[in-house]
Amino acid sequence: MLLKTTPFSDQKPGTSGLRKQVTRFQEPNYLPNFIQSIFNCLPDLKGATLVVGGDGRFYNREAIQIIISMAAANQVGKLLIGQSGVLSTPAVSHLIRSNNALGGIILSASHNPGGPDGDFGVKYNASNGGPAPESFTDAVFKVSQNIESYEIADNDPVDLETKSTTELDGMIVEIVDSVSDYADLMESIFDFDKIRDLISQSDFKLCFDAMSAVTGPYAKEILGNRLGVQAENIIRAEPLEDFGGGHPDPNLAHAKELVERMFSDQAPAFGAASDGDGDRNMILGANCYVTPSDSLAILAANAQLVPGYKDGLAGVARSMPTSQAVDRVAEALSLKCFETPTGWKFFGNLLDDGRITLCGEESFGTGSDHVREKDGLWAVLFWLNILAVKQQSVSDLVMDHWKHFGRNYYTRHDYEGIETSRADEVFNLLESKLADSAGKVMSGRTIKKADNFAYNDPVDSSVSSNQGIRFLFEDGARIIFRKSGTGTSGATLRLYVEHFESDPTRFELDTQQVLKDLLNIAEELAQLTTLTGREKADVIT
Ligand code: G6P
Ligand code: ZN
In angstroms, what is the span from residue 79 Cα to ligand 2's centroid? Predict the structure, then answer.
């Protein structure tokens, strides 16, 4: 049936889909409007296959029932839905690709908190398995601003809990195992025998933190059943609708129990965590934290030790604010290295066009051409495969890497939820300084170039401008300012600072100490204390 509706003004997708508070999504017509807007932008929707799944957060099941009814009324041919409505983001990407689906709808607000007062999100992925490009999300937004009606079937709720194939108004609804296809894919990339041997060594303990989010069932099957990790070493493995009240973000602040275990006398050899929807990862060794930027560089440098990448890499890519550690590896291996704006979607064209094999972001995302999303458990298995071959501790591996390539000291300072007008003032001030910055000397460092980053996609020639303010120094140091595109209230300002160090006697210094002079320059450039009204950043990683 056709139901009348009126537009909502705020349905513009951000860095990663439409993210709002659950209460907003629960408002009558809010979700249907957005879903119909997506459908209206898909000329091939009739008879097509779509994959649907979410990270299991509060409102997941209700949203899926609405999507089922709307898909049936919009004459979709088939829906593939994860059992209990659950699919990790990389698993959705894989199912889209392996079933030649038209696309998929992912229900997640990633690492944002969940529950009745938390966040919810909807993201559309295209037939390559990756987040839809900006041209598509812009078109969806446009439709949402003029929407007058939507199509929805009047059906009983579909049983999501049992694997089954049923029919609804001519549309096939298949409830599939959430884990098995993805687990098989992992087994086809990595040397599970070697990893199993490593895990059975008495001196090798590991701890994986699923953060009460979607990777619990995946970790239990892959790390537990297939690789022999004991159940007590997979912590917070039961997915909860509110993630146990926590923030399902794998970083030093939010994976507290894991971090306590890893920084102690009894620390396991390897620790890792993934986020709400399973696409992020954090890697730790005994008393050692690996930054996401270093992790990407180390995976690139050692990729040929892994069966899935034994023939080498086509190229690599990183988002602009990610440290340049991987650039050094690319240079040494004569690989092309691309610099894209923040947001996984920008890697899609490079992967599809075969220009890159590996890519990653400072925001705890790493991935490859096996799917078109970043992939948390994949990164964990990649590390385990390397450790199994090298028989080295995480910290020795990292130190050897720095000795070979040098160390990119790196930090990110976040000013969260500041008033939009204050954030605008900061960026206006920075913009005003760009033109006459080149050549200027600050604390002994000379600015080589200052700009507002724009990306020219080498594959489809699209241009994405206004992607962050950069101050690039002659010695390779960088200071970058960006506004987050994933927040749901106010503005979050991110400051990224990087300094390259080639002197091995300076590889074990305190990061904040090493970067102090650059942080002072950043303060001078952006007047952060005065303009944000904050003495210091809310989160420092
Ligand atoms: C999501 C996206 C990433 C992005 C990250 C941070 O996880 O998938 O591609 O790097 O958000 O985005 P933000 O705009 O908040 O810095
Ligand atoms: Zn995520």
Answer: 23
Q: Which domain holds residue 476?
A: 407-540
Q: What angle do CA 532, 535, 540 make, to 5 degrees?
A: 90
If one residue of 249, 486, 538 were mutated to test the ligand 1 pocket, choosing by the most ligand atoms within 8 A of its CB, it would be 486
> Residue 165: what residue type?
T
Residues 6+ apart with CB under 8 A from 432: none
- Same domain (yes/no): 429, 313: no
Q: Are residues 189 and 156 in the same domain?
A: no
Label residue 488 by pLDDT band (50, 70, 90): low
Q: Within its chain, how far is the Cα of 177 from the centroid?
A: 23
Looking at 405, 432, 463, which one is the last position of a domain?
Answer: 405
Which of these, 144, 128, 267, lies nearest to 203 by C-alpha position? 267
How many domains does the chain fold into?
A: 3
**Annotation says 465 is catalytic:** no
- CA 374–ligand 1 middle distance (angstroms): 11
> Is the CB of 361 inside a 6 Å radius of any atom of ligand 1?
yes
Nearest to 67 by CA among 51, 48, 89, 43: 51
Query: Does ligand 1 have an atom closer than 6 angstroms to the CB of 467?
Result: no
Encode pLDDT of 139-189 as tens digits: 999 999 999 999 999 999 999 999 999 999 999 999 999 999 999 999 999
Q: Are residues 60 and 31 in the same domain?
A: yes
Residue ending a domain, among 158, 178, 198, is: 178
125 C-beta closer than 6 A to ligand 1: no
Q: How far is the CA of 108 from the centre of ligand 2 (A)?
A: 8
Residue 338 and residue 276 in one domain: yes
Give every strand in the sheet of 18-21, ordered side by side.
Answer: 18-21, 119-125, 103-107, 49-54, 78-86, 171-176, 164-168
Q: Which of 2, 80, 61 is nearest to 36 (CA)?
A: 2
Complex ipTM > 0.95: yes
